[in-house]
Design goal:
This protein is of the alpha/beta class and 476 residues long. It has a single domain, classed as Phosphoglycerate mutase-like (Rossmann fold), CATH 3.40.50.1240. Helix content is 36%, strand content 11%. It contains twelve helices and nine strands. It has helices at residues 5-16, 80-96, 128-144, 160-173, 211-232, 240-257, 270-288, 295-311, 329-337, 369-372, 422-436, 439-443, and strands spanning 62-72, 153-157, 181-185, 320-325, 378-386, 395-402, 405-407, 420-421, 466-467. Strands 1, 2, 3, 4, 5, 6, 7, 8 and 9 form a nine-stranded mixed beta sheet that branches. A hairpin with a 2-residue loop joins strand 6 (395-402) and strand 7. Helix 8 crosses helix 9 (329-337). The two termini are 34 Å apart. The protein binds 2-acetamido-2-deoxy-beta-D-glucopyranose (8 copies). One 2-acetamido-2-deoxy-beta-D-glucopyranose binds at residues 290, 296, 335, 338, 341, 343-344, 348-349. Residues 1-25 form the signal peptide. Disulfide bonds join 62-386, 250-263, 412-420. This is Histidine acid phosphatase. GO terms for molecular function: acid phosphatase activity. Keywords: Disulfide bond, Glycoprotein, Hydrolase, Signal.
Length: 476
């Protein structure tokens, strides 16, 4: 049976609504469970891996006084590259394969009646599940921070899918009509570091980084799958890209229709899904992760601007700052922060590429794209006011949440739980600046009005944004 995505949403809802969970009797043997939707990298519907399982609640004696969030947009109907490279070729091949009687092939019988869940025109649009995910984040934050002021502005890069995510989020967060306005930041190729898409204005970044390396593992993991499918359905000529696209459809179809026959574990086994996930992880390692020397440089301006909002003593304009962007930026910020570093506890910087071998899976890696960049993947930096945390001084502390799970920072661990002190955080920030400053120079910008810092949160020229209103317009 394909795991039900609706069931997954209900499970997520249960995280938000305090309902009583039944106690299960201890079982003698563990039962193996596997959900492919949690191994789909950039195509994974939002989920919270809780890895490590530290509590998202503030440590004892602490309360959050300010928070800054960065979120990827929520679920969409396939991005253009995935659609053109994998999904559309598979779908048109399928439409041509009239000589094959799919209904006679057990694991693939659904293909006799299956139709593609999206059209050309729907590429890149937010799905209804996407609106739900973004709205759920708004409700989650208002439950998480009941004592903080509702933000008057949220920021988003200018693409439709990020703007719509910001709007759904704002609607669910605001208590009054037009309480939260959406500020759109143009995705300029000449914005320097001053946008929510700084990789687009960095010539040293290329969206094709990682494709050569991931192609090596793609070939390895798809070979036995191709042979199995070709033995079942001779004449279709399943290719490595067909297999990759069918597995991607598990994610995309789930966020469009609520479930997908491609997720069925009788069609693709857990090992097949782990191979898919590792292929994506290799790609993102070299594209937006530790295997690309520019990642931290592009991620630093957001980290620096956000840390400064939190370090500022005065109460400031807002308590909560939230921004929406695309899948590239959160992982680059994680590199700037030093999170999910496969080498953190050994191997050192030089060996980082060795932690992602191309001939077998490193199951113990910290860098898992399904955890790092699912739809709506979000990172928070919180400032906590602690008094009465036994064993720690009263004062300000800082911590990071990724998809609600606290993540320990490297060299910044002198506070309760996963937090670190104000002085520790300032020193940590300086270390990260020393590693990654110099955006314009290191990106090799070829325009002369570049800048190394992100000022959209404090620059009055950015404006107050556009009101969203609590009501949805007619379905558009
Ligand atoms: C499908 O068939 C048409 C007509 O024979 C052909 O032009 C097209 O290339 C085929 N598409 C694929 C993906 O095989
Ligand atoms: C540089 O100029 C371009 C074109 O006018 C503009 O889009 C971009 O935002 C500017 N960059 C900065 C950092 O102001
Ligand atoms: C599959 O490949 C074989 C051998 O290359 C070729 O003869 C056949 O026409 C192909 N079938 C389809 C449906 O493309
Ligand atoms: C990853 O960890 C290693 C070992 O601690 C360290 O040398 C390296 O600088 C880290 N990389 C980044 C980008 O923080
Ligand atoms: C990792 O591989 C990338 C791509 O080949 C290369 O640019 C980078 O320098 C390598 N990193 C290290 C630390 O060797
Ligand atoms: C921190 O908490 C203490 C105790 O609740 C309170 O007296 C103090 O005003 C708070 N400080 C800030 C900056 O919120
Ligand atoms: C960090 O942010 C501060 C405050 O906005 C700014 O003055 C500084 O230039 C920034 N530094 C870097 C390296 O971006
Ligand atoms: C933005 O909002 C602030 C505070 O509400 C107000 O003082 C300012 O005039 C507004 N700016 C614009 C350009 O509307």
């Amino acid at each position: 049976m394909a795991p039900s995505f609706v069931g997954e949403l209900l499970r997520l809802t249960a995280l938000v609504l305090p309902i009583l969970q039944p106690c299960s009797a201890a079982s003698l043997y563990s039962t193996y469970k596997f959900n492919p939707l949690e191994h789909l990298g950039g195509v994974a519907p939002y989920f919270e891996p809780q890895d490590p399982p530290a509590s998202p609640s503030p440590p004892q004696g602490c309360s959050v006084s300010r928070a800054v969030y960065l979120s990827r947009h929520a679920a969409i109907y396939a991005n253009d590259y995935d659609y053109e490279a994998y999904i559309d070729p598979f779908v048109s091949k399928l439409e041509n394969s009239t000589a094959i009687d799919w209904s006679k092939i057990p694991a693939l019988s659904f293909l006799a009646r299956w139709t593609a869940p999206l059209t050309d025109a729907e590429q890149e649009l937010l799905t209804r599940v996407g609106r739900l995910e973004a709205a759920q984040l708004g409700v989650t934050l208002s439950f998480r921070y009941p004592h903080l002021r509702v933000p008057s502005r949220v920021w988003t890069s200018s693409a439709e899918r990020t703007v719509k995510s910001a709007e759904s989020f704002a609607r669910s967060l605001e208590l009054n009509e037009d309480g939260t306005k959406v500020v759109s930041i143009y995705e300029s190729k000449e914005a320097g570091a001053n946008s929510l898409t700084p990789y687009k204005s960095c010539p040293a970044y290329s969206s094709s980084f990682g494709s050569d390396q991931s192609a090596v593992y793609l070939e390895k993991f798809t070979k036995p799958i191709m042979e199995r499918l070709n033995a079942m359905a001779p004449g279709f000529n399943f290719t490595a890209n067909d297999v990759y696209g069918m597995m991607e459809l598990c994610g995309y179809e789930s966020v469009i229709r609520g479930s997908s026959p491609f997720c069925d574990l009788d069609l693709f086994s857990p090992d097949d899904w782990l191979g898919w996930e590792y292929t994506a992880d290799i790609m993102y390692h070299y594209n937006v992760g530790y295997g690309n020397r520019i990642s931290g440089v592009v991620g630093l301006p957001w980290l620096n601007a956000s840390a400064n909002l939190l370090l500022e003593e005065s109460s400031g304009e807002q308590d909560i700052y939230v921004s929406f962007t695309h899948r590239e930026l959160p992982p680059m910020v994680f590199v700037a922060m030093g999170l999910f570093n496969n080498s953190e506890f050994g191997g050192g910087e030089a060996a980082i590429n060795d932690t992602m071998p191309l001939d077998r899976i490193n199951h113990r890696r910290a860098w898992k794209s399904s955890h790092v960049l699912p739809f709506l993947s979000n990172a928070a930096i919180e400032r906590l006011n602690c008094s009465g945390s036994y064993g720690y001084d009263e004062g300000d502390y800082y911590r990071i949440l990724v998809n609600s799970a606290p993540q320990p920072l490297p060299n910044c661990a002198d506070g309760p739980g996963t937090t670190c002190s104000r002085a520790g955080f300032e020193q940590y920030l300086q270390e990260r600046i020393d590693m990654f400053q110099g955006y314009s120079e290191r990106c090799g910008v070829d325009y002369d009005n570049s800048t190394d810092s992100l000022t959209i949160y404090t620059d009055s020229k950015v404006g107050n944004g556009t009101a969203v209103g609590k009501r949805y317009e007619a379905f558009a």
